[in-house]
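Section 5.1 Outputs to date
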Amino acid sequence: MVRRRLNASRHYRILRFTNRHWRARLVFWGGALTVGLVGIVFARLATMADAFFHRMLIHPWVALIVTPLGFVLSVLMARAVFPGSEGSGIPQAIAARRFRNPETRNKLLSLRLTFGKILLTLFGLACGASIGREGPTVQVGAAIMLSTARAGGMGLEQGLILAGSAAGVAAAFNTPLAGVVFAIEEMSRAFEQRTSGMVLIAVIFAGLASLGVLGNYTYFGTTSATLHTWIGWVSVLVCGVVGGLGGGAFAKIVVWGTDRFRAFIAPAPMKRALIFAGACGLTVAICGVLSGGNTYGTGYDAARHAVEGHYLPWTFAPLKFLATVASTLSGIPGGLFAPSLSVGAGLGSIVGKLLGVPSVGAVVVVGMAGYFAAATQAPITSAVIIGEMTNASEMVIPLMLASFIGYGISQMIQRESLYHALAHGFIQNMVQTHRVD
């Protein structure tokens, strides 16, 4: 009798554990699908916001008023209503993995902040800012996964942030493999065995949501161009060097400028932050006017045009570079993935013109790889994400070569990864403001 009761009690505990285990799994899977669906809606709304801005430009000079005022309002909302939403969103996700206190993490990753991040990124695009929605999707994905899995009692918060970030990249670009590589190379700088399953499952479910709704599309179009001539391979080396110098300079300017910005606004934080945002917005507007409107927004159309075999104007890359620097330093919410890829496409176009490379699309994607790898200091992610986004299956070796050359040169200019350097600022702010460990 006693043995029967013990067996029944043991069976009940096992059954209860199994039910709890499956409930946590279902919540986790639901969270990953939600990340994919939110990423799709975010992408659609971002396209609409960008189109709205261009329809609003009845005259090019309208941007000289609309864009600076939009930057000021965006920074005001980010600081007063949604603190923690400013910038890309990737540094916030990296910083959140450093804290163990749930309340501290919630100040960087929460559903309320998710709403603010999406809203203000769309507002920035509607004002012509040179930003993207991919970095914000990483923060959004991490926040959704953390919140849903917390509701299911899963624990393992660091792994969930990593999984949500990877799912965000996969959903933003429709690039499942790049999502996994991004989690390994950029977010964690390591790959722990206990979180590897989470990352893969989250990416799979987010990717299924994207494929189910949008189909198997390529983000920046498709190129079948390859490098068959010796001058084409020379262009790979040149794109790696030029991209490394440009991307490294971008990272250095942003890190240095962010430190100087904090010192500048310290005497009167809100007032000076708004003045600086207005100046950055005016810079973006001037770049847009000089480029004929090509540098506003993500730069997606220009990059896609180049990938599909058309050269860009000589002035596109430097003006897009300046507009992206101004948008990033301004403090408005918005990412730099798509703008950086656009700058890289512009650099590749310049190199292709100078060297007379017959395969335009091939040298453009190589330019994207060299610059993006240098800006983010994530060469494997760069090669994989560009290969997946453009379906450039025959360009694997050139993409890897340009990425590692760009990365190596960037390391000489800016020793620490851009996102990790910016994450230190959020960590320091949380420690000073909230006195957390």
